Amino acid sequence: MNQVPYIAVEGPIGAGKTTLATMLAAELNMPVLKEIVEENPFLGKFYQNIDEWSFQLEMFFLCNRYKQLGDTESQLIRQGTPVISDYHIYKNLIFSERTLKGREREKYRQIYHVLTDDLAKPSTIVYIKASLETLLARIDKRGRSFEQDMDRAYLQQLIEDYEAAMASLAVTEPETTIITVDGDAADFVANPEQFAEIADRVKARIAGHPLR
């Protein structure tokens, strides 16, 4: 376990990662690190033609997240400041393993490990698990134009990929605690009691006494 609490909120597209991370950061009085999404110039093109624009998209995300997390590690975590992020760097592999193929996938894996293997790992992952219907409703509600034509099959596969990824991280990063939030049952925005329950589980983990 890291000496300094480092919390990552994760889940598929539309799960509510940024919203929950922002709420937890306010509750826990921690700085929040938000991933760069809409600034990616390849995002709209990717959703229109995944095969054509996957490598450019994934490399942009990887390089920006590497820089962002590297700066956060040196400026905050190593200085003893707890941090909450709305992503785990591992998400780059979750997406790239699905979108890239052949030599491009292998090249990406190599670059990923060179850049990220020595980055600080989260002490806690808050994983928002949600069904396709819930994700689609939230995607529609937030109204990002480039997400409106998203392939339902792609999103469903992403849900399954996240499940596999969390199982893998439980083995490869045993020092990291994974707190699973039922995104179908818990509306942490509209229901203060449900948010408080999530926050209490995170607080207990930080205190070294995780709730069961």
UniProtKB/TrEMBL annotation:
One Pfam match, by short name? dNK
Tell me where on the tree of life, at the top rank, the source sits: Bacteria
Keyword Zinc-finger (UniProt)? no
MF GO annotations: ATP binding; deoxynucleoside kinase activity
Q: Which residues bind ATP?
A: 11-19, 138-142
Q: Which Gene3D superfamilies match?
A: P-loop containing nucleotide triphosphate hydrolases
GO CC annotation: cytoplasm
The similarity comment for this entry is: Belongs to the DCK/DGK family.
Name of the protein: AAA family ATPase
* Originating organism: Saccharibacillus brassicae
Lineage here is: Bacteria, Bacillati, Bacillota, Bacilli, Bacillales
